[in-house]
Specification:
Length: about 325
């Protein structure tokens, strides 16, 4: 009986699609780490599978099929990064905040990757390798350094395999890795190694519940009470960043004060292994709460230290409706 692998490598397009499809979600997460954009990662995976099918005759079976796909995906991402660099070079960001293309990743899709017990070579998506702070820091690296760090410190590949991934020497791959590690150490929070929970903890969920309650009661004092003095709020792709609780106070007044746009209802969710809330706004005279924004929270020391706010265009990926009824 012909196996799926045999049929795929013999040129059966349906069999190849089924075989490569086993790795689709983890390839998407890999491309997302490289690009920090959910949509760009989707394009990259599509291009990866197309390139793999077209070059199937070049696969000699000596490398693991999964590793071969990762190599193609990495090259696709390097190509996309070069094109993106040419587009943005003439228009640098107005502030040193998040990259304009940053998008959240729904936890419900991260959970699609099979655990090691079911698929031994599957990648475990730990918080420290998918959290927004890590993604933002990655984007500050040159693309090949980024690829080297992901291969070694996220995927756990050997130096030789990483060199093969980048089509370079082991010495060059190690050099890129060391430079990348030095840059990441400067940019990441010191306590990042303590992030061990695979998803939001009970304490984080409780703080999220208080965040939601403060919004729905339009209680600015309650919202301020759970915020750290070093609170940082950003709204990619808007380049504006608000650093420090004092700088953020006008946002609380705008959202909760008498001149606010309407009343709020929030739905708890999670993104990038962090607590998040989807906000819906009921404007005066309207009859339904309409999708408005997605807030992803980073918590430290029992306080919210960072809020990254995204538009409602990401709601479908989170399985969220576009409106709520009374």
């Amino acid at each position: 009986m012909t196996t799926l692998e045999e049929a795929a490598f013999a040129g059966d397009e349906t069999a190849f699609a089924d075989l490569a499809g086993r790795y689709r979600r983890e390839l998407h997460v890999h491309c997302y780490r490289m690009l920090a954009s959910f949509d760009d990662a989707e394009d990259a995976v599509q291009e990866t599978l197309l390139r793999a099918w077209r070059s199937l005759d070049q696969y000699d079976g000596r490398a693991y099929f999964r590793a071969w796909l990762y190599r193609i995906a990495t090259n696709v991402c390097l190509d996309l990064t070069r094109r993106r660099g040419r587009r943005t070079a003439a228009a640098p960001p107005a502030s040193p905040g998040e990259p304009a293309w940053l998008q959240p990743y729904p936890d419900r899709l991260l959970d699609e990757i099979a655990p090691p017990a079911d698929q031994p070579d599957a990648v475990v998506v730990d918080r420290e390798t998918i959290e927004l702070t890590f993604l933002i820091a990655l984007q500050a690296l040159p693309a090949r350094q980024r690829a080297a760090l992901i291969a070694r410190d996220v995927l756990g590949w050997s130096a030789a395999d990483t060199a093969g991934l980048l089509d370079t020497s082991v010495a060059a791959a190690n050099s890129a890795l060391q430079r990348a590690r030095a840059t990441m150490q400067q940019r990441l929070p010191a306590r990042r190694a303590d992030w061990s929970a695979p998803r939001p903890s009970a304490a984080e969920r409780e703080l999220l519940a208080r965040f939601i309650d403060a919004h729905e009661r339009c209680d600015a004092e309650a919202a301020i009470a759970i915020a750290a003095e070093e609170l940082r709020i950003s709204m990619p792709p808007n380049p504006m960043v608000f650093d420090g609780l004092a700088a953020c106070l006008p946002l609380f007044e705008r959202g909760f004060g008498p001149d606010r746009d309407g009343d709020w209802r929030l739905v708890p969710t999670s993104a990038n292994r962090l607590p998040a809330a989807a906000s819906y706004l009921l404007r005066p005279g309207d009859t339904v709460w309409r999708a408005f924004k997605l807030d992803v929270l980073r918590v430290d020391g029992g306080k919210i230290v960072e809020i990254t706010t995204f538009g409602y265009s990401r709601f479908p990926a989170f399985g969220l409706p576009d409106h709520l009824t009374p």
